[in-house]
Amino acid sequence: METEGVKEPDCISAVIPGWFSEISPMWPGEAHSLKVEKILFQGKSDYQDVMVFQSSTYGKVLVLDGVIQLTERDECAYQEMITHLPLCSIPNPKKVLVIGGGDGGVLREVSRHSSVEKIEICEIDKMVVDVSKQFFPDIAVGYEDPRVTLHIGDGVAFLKAVPEGTYDAVIVDSSDPIGPAQELFKKPFFESVAKALRPGGVMCTQAESIWLHMHIIEDILANSRQVFKGSVKYAWTTVPTYPSGVIGFMLCSTEGPEVDFKHPVNPIDAHDKSGRPLRFYNSEIHSAAFCLPSFAKKVIDYK
Ligand code: SAM
Questions:
Q1: Mean pLDDT calculated for residue range 51-61
Q2: N or C: which end of the chain has fewer CB within 10 A?
Protein backbone atom coordinates (compact mmCIF):
# COMPACT_ATOMS: atom_id res chain seq x y z
CA MET A 1 0.00 0.00 0.00
CA GLU A 2 1.71 3.23 -1.14
CA THR A 3 1.23 6.32 1.10
CA GLU A 4 3.36 9.12 -0.36
CA GLY A 5 6.68 7.94 1.03
CA VAL A 6 5.42 7.45 4.61
CA LYS A 7 7.31 4.53 6.17
CA GLU A 8 4.76 1.90 7.18
CA PRO A 9 5.11 1.17 10.93
CA ASP A 10 5.48 -2.47 11.96
CA CYS A 11 1.78 -2.80 12.86
CA ILE A 12 0.70 -1.86 9.33
CA SER A 13 0.70 -4.78 6.89
CA ALA A 14 2.65 -6.76 9.49
CA VAL A 15 0.14 -9.55 9.00
CA ILE A 16 -2.05 -8.67 6.01
CA PRO A 17 -0.76 -6.05 3.50
CA GLY A 18 -2.79 -2.85 3.73
CA TRP A 19 -4.24 -3.75 7.15
CA PHE A 20 -3.46 -2.44 10.64
CA SER A 21 -3.02 -5.30 13.09
CA GLU A 22 -2.98 -4.53 16.81
CA ILE A 23 -0.23 -6.89 17.97
CA SER A 24 0.71 -6.53 21.66
CA PRO A 25 2.13 -8.62 24.52
CA MET A 26 -0.98 -7.46 26.44
CA TRP A 27 -3.12 -9.80 24.29
CA PRO A 28 -0.78 -12.58 23.12
CA GLY A 29 -1.92 -14.83 20.27
CA GLU A 30 -4.59 -12.50 18.95
CA ALA A 31 -4.69 -9.25 16.97
CA HIS A 32 -7.64 -7.19 15.84
CA SER A 33 -7.13 -5.81 12.33
CA LEU A 34 -8.62 -2.87 10.44
CA LYS A 35 -8.30 -2.20 6.71
CA VAL A 36 -6.18 0.92 6.13
CA GLU A 37 -7.29 3.36 3.42
CA LYS A 38 -4.58 5.95 4.17
CA ILE A 39 -2.04 6.83 6.87
CA LEU A 40 -2.83 10.45 7.82
CA PHE A 41 -0.20 11.12 10.50
CA GLN A 42 2.82 9.46 12.02
CA GLY A 43 4.96 10.95 14.76
CA LYS A 44 7.07 10.13 17.79
CA SER A 45 6.57 12.28 20.90
CA ASP A 46 8.72 12.22 24.04
CA TYR A 47 6.39 9.49 25.33
CA GLN A 48 5.04 7.32 22.53
CA ASP A 49 4.55 6.68 18.82
CA VAL A 50 1.46 8.51 17.55
CA MET A 51 -0.37 7.47 14.38
CA VAL A 52 -3.67 8.38 12.71
CA PHE A 53 -5.07 6.42 9.79
CA GLN A 54 -8.26 6.41 7.77
CA SER A 55 -9.87 3.00 8.09
CA SER A 56 -12.40 1.65 5.60
CA THR A 57 -15.15 0.92 8.15
CA TYR A 58 -14.44 2.73 11.45
CA GLY A 59 -13.57 6.24 10.24
CA LYS A 60 -10.32 7.76 11.42
CA VAL A 61 -8.34 5.84 14.04
CA LEU A 62 -5.92 7.13 16.73
CA VAL A 63 -3.11 4.70 17.64
CA LEU A 64 -0.53 5.13 20.43
CA ASP A 65 2.45 2.75 20.55
CA GLY A 66 0.59 0.39 18.20
CA VAL A 67 -2.58 0.28 20.38
CA ILE A 68 -5.95 1.62 19.20
CA GLN A 69 -7.10 4.48 21.48
CA LEU A 70 -10.23 5.43 19.59
CA THR A 71 -12.06 5.24 16.27
CA GLU A 72 -14.64 7.75 15.06
CA ARG A 73 -17.28 5.03 14.78
CA ASP A 74 -17.21 3.51 18.29
CA GLU A 75 -15.53 6.13 20.53
CA CYS A 76 -18.95 7.21 21.82
CA ALA A 77 -19.36 3.95 23.74
CA TYR A 78 -16.19 4.48 25.75
CA GLN A 79 -16.27 8.28 26.19
CA GLU A 80 -19.94 8.35 27.24
CA MET A 81 -19.70 5.41 29.65
CA ILE A 82 -16.43 6.41 31.39
CA THR A 83 -17.90 9.89 31.95
CA HIS A 84 -21.59 9.39 32.74
CA LEU A 85 -21.24 6.30 34.93
CA PRO A 86 -19.51 8.43 37.64
CA LEU A 87 -21.11 11.82 36.97
CA CYS A 88 -24.67 10.48 36.86
CA SER A 89 -24.05 8.67 40.17
CA ILE A 90 -23.64 11.85 42.23
CA PRO A 91 -25.94 14.89 42.52
CA ASN A 92 -24.61 18.18 41.06
CA PRO A 93 -20.96 17.41 40.23
CA LYS A 94 -19.15 20.79 40.13
CA LYS A 95 -15.39 20.24 39.87
CA VAL A 96 -14.09 17.46 37.63
CA LEU A 97 -10.53 16.35 36.83
CA VAL A 98 -9.60 14.22 33.81
CA ILE A 99 -6.26 12.39 33.83
CA GLY A 100 -5.10 11.39 30.34
CA GLY A 101 -7.93 11.75 27.84
CA GLY A 102 -5.82 13.90 25.52
CA ASP A 103 -8.20 13.31 22.59
CA GLY A 104 -10.80 15.52 24.31
CA GLY A 105 -13.67 13.01 24.16
CA VAL A 106 -14.18 12.81 27.93
CA LEU A 107 -14.12 16.63 28.09
CA ARG A 108 -16.88 16.69 25.47
CA GLU A 109 -18.98 14.38 27.63
CA VAL A 110 -18.28 16.14 30.96
CA SER A 111 -19.39 19.43 29.39
CA ARG A 112 -22.90 17.99 28.93
CA HIS A 113 -23.38 18.33 32.72
CA SER A 114 -24.68 21.86 33.37
CA SER A 115 -23.94 21.58 37.11
CA VAL A 116 -20.19 21.35 36.35
CA GLU A 117 -18.40 24.67 36.93
CA LYS A 118 -14.74 23.65 36.40
CA ILE A 119 -13.12 20.94 34.26
CA GLU A 120 -9.37 20.33 34.54
CA ILE A 121 -7.42 17.90 32.37
CA CYS A 122 -3.85 16.68 32.85
CA GLU A 123 -2.50 14.97 29.71
CA ILE A 124 1.17 14.01 29.52
CA ASP A 125 1.56 14.25 25.74
CA LYS A 126 0.88 17.52 23.88
CA MET A 127 1.22 15.70 20.56
CA VAL A 128 -1.97 13.74 21.35
CA VAL A 129 -3.86 16.98 22.00
CA ASP A 130 -2.59 18.62 18.81
CA VAL A 131 -3.23 15.55 16.64
CA SER A 132 -6.74 15.14 18.04
CA LYS A 133 -7.59 18.79 17.34
CA GLN A 134 -6.32 18.38 13.77
CA PHE A 135 -7.85 15.01 12.84
CA PHE A 136 -10.72 14.46 15.33
CA PRO A 137 -12.53 17.84 15.66
CA ASP A 138 -15.80 16.19 16.76
CA ILE A 139 -13.92 14.61 19.68
CA ALA A 140 -11.51 17.43 20.52
CA VAL A 141 -14.52 19.78 20.59
CA GLY A 142 -14.36 19.20 24.35
CA TYR A 143 -11.45 21.65 24.58
CA GLU A 144 -13.69 24.49 23.36
CA ASP A 145 -15.74 24.56 26.57
CA PRO A 146 -14.75 27.68 28.58
CA ARG A 147 -14.82 25.63 31.81
CA VAL A 148 -11.85 23.55 30.60
CA THR A 149 -8.25 24.11 31.74
CA LEU A 150 -5.55 21.98 30.06
CA HIS A 151 -2.39 21.01 31.94
CA ILE A 152 0.35 19.22 30.00
CA GLY A 153 2.15 16.93 32.42
CA ASP A 154 2.25 13.63 34.28
CA GLY A 155 -1.00 12.90 36.09
CA VAL A 156 0.93 11.36 38.98
CA ALA A 157 2.83 14.57 39.69
CA PHE A 158 -0.23 16.75 39.05
CA LEU A 159 -2.31 14.98 41.68
CA LYS A 160 0.46 15.16 44.27
CA ALA A 161 0.12 18.95 44.16
CA VAL A 162 -3.70 19.06 44.37
CA PRO A 163 -5.17 20.33 47.68
CA GLU A 164 -7.20 17.79 49.66
CA GLY A 165 -10.91 17.49 48.79
CA THR A 166 -10.70 19.58 45.61
CA TYR A 167 -12.80 17.54 43.18
CA ASP A 168 -16.23 15.92 43.05
CA ALA A 169 -15.00 13.49 40.39
CA VAL A 170 -11.74 12.27 38.86
CA ILE A 171 -11.89 10.39 35.55
CA VAL A 172 -8.74 8.46 34.65
CA ASP A 173 -8.88 8.01 30.89
CA SER A 174 -5.47 6.44 30.55
CA SER A 175 -3.82 4.17 28.06
CA ASP A 176 -2.78 0.66 29.17
CA PRO A 177 -0.43 -0.04 32.11
CA ILE A 178 2.64 -0.17 29.84
CA GLY A 179 4.45 3.02 28.85
CA PRO A 180 3.58 6.40 30.42
CA ALA A 181 0.36 5.14 32.03
CA GLN A 182 2.04 2.43 34.13
CA GLU A 183 1.90 4.40 37.41
CA LEU A 184 -1.80 5.24 36.94
CA PHE A 185 -2.74 1.68 37.87
CA LYS A 186 -0.82 1.57 41.15
CA LYS A 187 -1.90 2.15 44.78
CA PRO A 188 0.08 5.39 45.42
CA PHE A 189 -1.74 7.00 42.50
CA PHE A 190 -5.13 5.84 43.81
CA GLU A 191 -4.19 7.29 47.22
CA SER A 192 -3.48 10.67 45.64
CA VAL A 193 -6.81 10.53 43.78
CA ALA A 194 -8.68 9.70 47.00
CA LYS A 195 -6.97 12.63 48.75
CA ALA A 196 -7.94 15.01 45.94
CA LEU A 197 -11.64 13.99 46.16
CA ARG A 198 -14.19 15.44 48.56
CA PRO A 199 -16.04 13.07 50.97
CA GLY A 200 -18.40 11.02 48.76
CA GLY A 201 -16.41 12.06 45.67
CA VAL A 202 -15.99 9.54 42.84
CA MET A 203 -13.24 8.13 40.62
CA CYS A 204 -13.78 6.22 37.39
CA THR A 205 -10.77 4.59 35.80
CA GLN A 206 -10.26 2.57 32.63
CA ALA A 207 -10.08 -1.04 33.87
CA GLU A 208 -9.21 -3.29 30.92
CA SER A 209 -10.98 -6.42 29.66
CA ILE A 210 -12.59 -9.25 31.69
CA TRP A 211 -11.69 -11.63 28.83
CA LEU A 212 -7.98 -10.71 28.77
CA HIS A 213 -6.91 -8.95 31.95
CA MET A 214 -8.52 -10.49 35.04
CA HIS A 215 -5.12 -10.36 36.75
CA ILE A 216 -4.88 -6.60 36.15
CA ILE A 217 -8.49 -6.13 37.25
CA GLU A 218 -7.83 -8.07 40.45
CA ASP A 219 -4.90 -5.76 41.24
CA ILE A 220 -6.96 -2.64 40.53
CA LEU A 221 -9.77 -4.06 42.67
CA ALA A 222 -7.47 -4.86 45.60
CA ASN A 223 -5.85 -1.41 45.48
CA SER A 224 -9.24 0.31 45.13
CA ARG A 225 -10.73 -1.54 48.09
CA GLN A 226 -7.73 -0.66 50.28
CA VAL A 227 -7.81 3.03 49.33
CA PHE A 228 -11.49 3.94 48.75
CA LYS A 229 -13.66 3.49 51.85
CA GLY A 230 -16.99 4.21 50.13
CA SER A 231 -18.18 2.00 47.30
CA VAL A 232 -16.04 0.07 44.74
CA LYS A 233 -17.84 -1.33 41.70
CA TYR A 234 -16.79 -2.72 38.32
CA ALA A 235 -18.74 -1.95 35.16
CA TRP A 236 -18.09 -2.90 31.56
CA THR A 237 -19.21 -2.07 28.05
CA THR A 238 -18.72 -3.03 24.44
CA VAL A 239 -16.22 -1.21 22.24
CA PRO A 240 -15.74 -3.27 19.05
CA THR A 241 -12.22 -1.98 18.32
CA TYR A 242 -10.81 -2.58 21.81
CA PRO A 243 -9.10 -5.91 22.42
CA SER A 244 -11.77 -8.65 22.94
CA GLY A 245 -14.42 -6.03 22.07
CA VAL A 246 -15.03 -4.93 25.65
CA ILE A 247 -13.55 -2.51 28.18
CA GLY A 248 -14.18 -2.13 31.90
CA PHE A 249 -14.32 0.68 34.43
CA MET A 250 -13.56 0.70 38.13
CA LEU A 251 -15.85 3.10 39.99
CA CYS A 252 -14.83 4.13 43.50
CA SER A 253 -16.17 6.61 46.05
CA THR A 254 -14.48 8.06 49.11
CA GLU A 255 -15.95 7.80 52.61
CA GLY A 256 -18.86 10.17 53.09
CA PRO A 257 -22.30 10.50 51.45
CA GLU A 258 -23.30 7.04 50.15
CA VAL A 259 -22.83 6.56 46.37
CA ASP A 260 -24.93 3.88 44.67
CA PHE A 261 -23.19 3.55 41.28
CA LYS A 262 -25.75 1.08 39.97
CA HIS A 263 -28.70 3.47 40.10
CA PRO A 264 -28.06 6.92 38.56
CA VAL A 265 -29.34 9.82 40.72
CA ASN A 266 -28.45 12.50 38.19
CA PRO A 267 -29.86 11.46 34.79
CA ILE A 268 -27.92 13.23 32.01
CA ASP A 269 -30.79 13.60 29.55
CA ALA A 270 -32.55 15.93 31.99
CA HIS A 271 -30.18 18.86 31.42
CA ASP A 272 -28.01 18.11 28.40
CA LYS A 273 -28.07 21.25 26.26
CA SER A 274 -25.14 20.23 24.04
CA GLY A 275 -27.30 19.76 20.97
CA ARG A 276 -25.38 16.54 20.33
CA PRO A 277 -27.57 13.55 21.22
CA LEU A 278 -25.96 10.76 23.23
CA ARG A 279 -25.15 7.85 20.89
CA PHE A 280 -24.56 5.15 23.49
CA TYR A 281 -25.22 5.96 27.16
CA ASN A 282 -28.68 5.86 28.75
CA SER A 283 -29.94 5.13 32.29
CA GLU A 284 -30.82 1.51 31.48
CA ILE A 285 -27.41 0.70 30.07
CA HIS A 286 -25.90 2.49 33.08
CA SER A 287 -27.43 -0.03 35.48
CA ALA A 288 -26.90 -2.98 33.13
CA ALA A 289 -23.16 -2.20 32.90
CA PHE A 290 -22.67 -3.56 36.43
CA CYS A 291 -24.10 -7.01 35.58
CA LEU A 292 -21.16 -9.38 35.19
CA PRO A 293 -20.82 -12.84 33.59
CA SER A 294 -20.35 -15.60 36.15
CA PHE A 295 -16.60 -16.12 35.54
CA ALA A 296 -15.98 -12.43 36.30
CA LYS A 297 -18.57 -12.17 39.10
CA LYS A 298 -16.71 -14.89 41.00
CA VAL A 299 -13.60 -12.71 41.13
CA ILE A 300 -15.01 -9.19 41.17
CA ASP A 301 -18.22 -9.37 43.18
CA TYR A 302 -16.89 -11.69 45.85
CA LYS A 303 -18.07 -9.41 48.61
N1 SAM B 1 -9.55 5.18 25.63
C2 SAM B 1 -8.13 4.82 25.64
C3 SAM B 1 -7.93 3.50 26.35
O4 SAM B 1 -8.87 3.00 26.96
O5 SAM B 1 -6.80 2.98 26.25
C6 SAM B 1 -7.34 5.94 26.27
C7 SAM B 1 -7.36 7.15 25.41
S8 SAM B 1 -6.44 8.53 25.88
C9 SAM B 1 -5.76 8.92 24.32
C10 SAM B 1 -5.09 7.92 26.82
C11 SAM B 1 -4.17 9.08 27.17
O12 SAM B 1 -3.49 8.86 28.41
C13 SAM B 1 -3.05 9.32 26.14
O14 SAM B 1 -3.26 10.55 25.50
C15 SAM B 1 -1.75 9.30 26.96
O16 SAM B 1 -0.80 10.23 26.49
C17 SAM B 1 -2.30 9.65 28.33
N18 SAM B 1 -1.41 9.30 29.45
C19 SAM B 1 -0.71 8.14 29.62
N20 SAM B 1 0.01 8.20 30.76
C21 SAM B 1 -0.25 9.41 31.35
C22 SAM B 1 0.18 10.04 32.55
N23 SAM B 1 1.05 9.43 33.40
N24 SAM B 1 -0.31 11.28 32.84
C25 SAM B 1 -1.18 11.90 31.99
N26 SAM B 1 -1.62 11.35 30.81
C27 SAM B 1 -1.16 10.11 30.51
A1: 97
A2: C
